[in-house]
Every structure is written in C-alpha cells, then in structure tokens.
Design a protein that fits this description.
This protein is α+β, with helices and mostly antiparallel strands. It folds into two domains: 71 residues, no CATH class; 95 residues, PH-domain like (Roll). The chain has three helices and eight strands, in the order E-H-H-E-E-E-E-E-E-E-H. Strands 1, 2, 3, 4, 5, 6, 7 and 8 form an eight-stranded mixed beta sheet that branches.
Length: 180
C-alpha cells in the first residue's frame, strides 16, 4: 500500500491567515502613520489586511498547489527492478545553499529524493537504509519544526524539509528496524 503525505490542516491555514493579515495590517498602519502623520481610513487598512491574509493562506497555496501537482505528478524516481514505492510526499533537500524542491520516496529498499525540473541542482539522491547511521528532527531556519536530518555512516548529512515530519520519522524508523 502506497501512502502519500501532503496535507496542511485548516488550523494551520487559519493561523497563517491571521499572522499574515496581522503583519500586513500593522505594516500598512505604520507606513500611513509615518508617511502621512495620521491614519484616516481604518476600515480600508483592516479590509486590506484581512484580504491579504486570506489570499496568502488560502489563495496563494491553492494556486501553487495546482502548479506543484503538475510538477509533482511528473516526478518519478528511477527504481531497481524489484523496488516498490511505499510512501511519498513533497519535500525539499538542501544542496549547499539551495533548497531543492521535489519529492521524497520511501521504498522497500531505500530512501529516494527526486528533484523537479525547476531547480538549479536537479537529479536523484538515493540513501540505502543500510547506510543510515542516524536521523533526527530539526528546525528549518531554527524556527519551523519541519526539518529532518539524515546522517549516513560516512558522515554525510541530508537536510530535508517535509510536511508531517512525525509520520516520516515513524515510517523511517519502521524501515530501519526491518533492515537491521
């Protein structure tokens, strides 16, 4: 059975709408206050903040979700003859300074990251379960709890950004237990 991990809850979207709208409203208020010396139309500022927050939390992800689905559906890794994909989902892999967008796959033999074609660094990275020394959760930009670091036996670190990190860690733990 193949599992696809690609969900963002409405609770998170609502939080993003409030955060984005609040920051935008505050920014508009400060710009108008310091440029004009006074704020005449509060309703306009609040309306713009609410509209911006909703667009950034719902409209923007919807539009880019459509684009990503087009790109994501075209991503398929090169598999060995007896290899099967068990779990897949969108991910980024840091290759130097670039956060390379693509898809992460757990197969019955290895972990695979395959980039989409809009990146500078493209290609496929294969990590055999037998070569994984450790994996741990991490914060992206020291702020967001969506990072996953995989360290191989030869000391190479693979830093991923994934949705539903706990599910990925659970499934990876199952794979490593099965292989040892």
């Amino acid at each position: 059975m193949k599992t696809e991990i690609n969900q963002v809850s409405w609770k998170i979207r609502l939080g993003l709408a409030l955060l984005n709208g609040g920051i935008f409203t505050l920014t508009l208020f400060l710009i108008r206050y310091f440029m004009d010396g006074e704020v005449l139309n509060w309703y306009s500022i609040i309306f713009q903040g609410v509209f911006f927050g909703l667009f950034m939390a719902i409209g923007f992800p919807y539009l880019f979700g459509k684009l990503a689905n087009g790109l994501g559906n075209s991503i398929s890794p090169v598999l060995d003859p007896d290899e099967e994909i068990e779990t897949e989902g969108p991910a980024n892999l840091f290759r130097g300074m670039e956060g390379v967008g693509g898809k992460l796959f757990l197969t019955n033999q290895k972990l695979i990251f395959k980039s989409h074609s809009l990146n500078i660094n493209t290609g496929q990275s294969d990590i055999s379960y037998k070569t994984i020394a450790d994996f741990q959760s991490r914060k992206t930009s020291k702020l967001i709890n969506n990072g996953l670091r995989i360290t191989t036996l030869d000391g190479v670190n693979y830093d991923f950004v994934v949705n539903d990190r706990e599910i990925w860690m659970e499934k990876l733990q199952e794979k490593l237990k099965r292989d040892s």
